[in-house]
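Predict the 3D structure for this chain.
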Amino acid sequence: MTEKEKFVTEFKTKKEEVEFLLEKYPATRENDFYLQLMWLKIFGHVNIPYIDWNSLKDFSGTLETVSRVRRKIQNEYGKYLPSKETQKHRLSKRKVITQHISVM
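Done. Predicted structure below.
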């Protein structure tokens, strides 16, 4: 296990990971898209090459909109549904989140 991998495994929850990013990378406080890219790079171990942030930052809200529109098309209109496996995975995630919210 590399030093970086040891460091990353110290975090037990997504909340701890996100708090780390928000603390260490102040620009992630301003833009969810940048926060997500940093999470992928540091905690997702995705080899993201250098990206000119200035050329991407205008798309940050657009990507969230694309995701919301996809959910609306699938959930409200029942069109272009994902595979049964993906539906099952999303349902189990929804149940976990609902349980966590009800405990709070």
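The first helix runs from residue 3 to 8.
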